[in-house]
Design a protein that fits this description.
- The chain is mainly alpha-helical and 312 residues long.
- The chain is built from 12 helices and 3 strands, in the order βββαααααααααααα.
- 62% of the residues lie in helices and 5% in strands.
- Strands 1-2-3 form a 3-stranded antiparallel beta sheet, with no helix packed on it.
- The longest helix has 28 residues.
- The N terminus and C terminus are likely disordered.
Length: 312
């Protein structure tokens, strides 16, 4: 690669803000701004936009749960998302099919936990505890990928995590009087961070393996989540709560009846918004953005994976 005044001798990824070059005139290595780095601003902007849209899930989830069983609204929501992305489901790479299904199971854990938590826990508290994802993911990297994630090895990770939690706390809990009494809703709120964080962790690995699979991976996540939510709705409607035995309740709680019931217009609009925009479109945007973000380099790479150089 040729730089402005010489031959590039050190070239990082396209997103690197600088590249070091050997100046042919004086033989010294000098740094220059990487002109390709500016092309990589959009993944961060896309991820930020997805986060803003995602924030609408909490008040709308509470709205839906106040009107209908949580299992019913979740099932309807993810059925819409799965249908919207179904044309891409068959295009998934067979090599990552099982991994995508596993990722979908963790996605379902995140969304179902969030929905259950919103039944009796404030949207602000659920949002704050869901932000624990910024702590859960570094722990996954440390214990699963064996990457050094201590504060002395990756201080920027933990400082960013603490700042993120502090920011969400100021935004969401300022008028709530703190977390209040801990209950089951708080546990479900923490589980949403585990589910979403693990699904993001697996998604990044799949996208690193095959960057062209953003749409099929998103379709698989939504399809698996829709299937699990359907099982939840059946169990809740037929066994636990029994709301499916009442014809009137069943009609307005399931598709397509929910969409045509005049008294449920606001709930139906929330189901459509959360299903098509903040689920299908948002998951696609997150997957695409994460596949184009430069990962944090391992500060202590080990070129020799075998700790014993002389196994014999």
């Amino acid at each position: 690669m040729v730089c402005a005044r010489g031959v590039c001798v050190i070239s990082d990824r396209e997103a690197s803000p600088e590249m070091s070059c050997l100046d042919e005139e004086d033989g010294q290595v000098k740094s220059e701004t990487n002109p390709d780095a500016s092309k990589q601003w959009w993944p961060s902007a896309l991820l930020l936009g997805c986060s803003v849209l995602y924030g609408t899930n909490f008040p709308l989830g509470r709205l839906m749960n106040d009107a209908l069983p949580a299992s019913a609204t979740s099932s309807a929501r993810f059925l819409l998302a799965a249908i919207a992305l179904s044309p891409f489901l068959l295009k998934i790479n067979p090599a990552i099919r099982l991994q995508a299904m596993r990722c979908g199971a963790f996605t379902a854990l995140g969304y179902i936990s969030q929905s259950i938590a919103l039944v009796d826990t404030s949207a602000a508290t659920v949002s704050f505890l869901g932000a624990l994802i910024v702590v859960w993911n570094p722990l996954l990297e440390a214990f699963v990928d064996k990457r050094p994630k201590g504060f002395d090895q990756a201080p920027q990770t933990w400082i960013a995590a603490l700042l993120a939690l502090a920011g969400v706390a100021l935004l969401e809990l300022a008028g709530e009087g703190g977390l209040g009494d801990l209950g089951w809703g708080d546990l479900w709120s923490v589980l949403q961070a585990v589910g979403f964080g693990t699904s993001f962790f697996i998604t990044e690995k799949m996208m690193a393996r095959d960057p062209s699979q953003a749409l099929p991976i998103t379709a698989a996540q939504c399809a698996v989540t829709a299937a699990i939510c359907a099982v939840w709705a059946l169990g809740d409607g037929l066994v636990l709560d029994g709301w499916m035995y009442d014809e009137a309740t069943r009609t307005v709680s399931t598709l397509p009846g929910l969409l045509f019931e005049p008294s449920m217009r606001s709930v139906a609009a929330a189901v459509v918004w959360t299903g098509l925009v903040t689920t299908a479109a948002n998951r696609l945007g997150e997957t695409t953005a994460r596949s184009n973000l430069t990962p944090n380099p391992d500060p202590n790479p080990n070129p020799n994976p075998n700790p014993n150089p002389n196994p014999n």
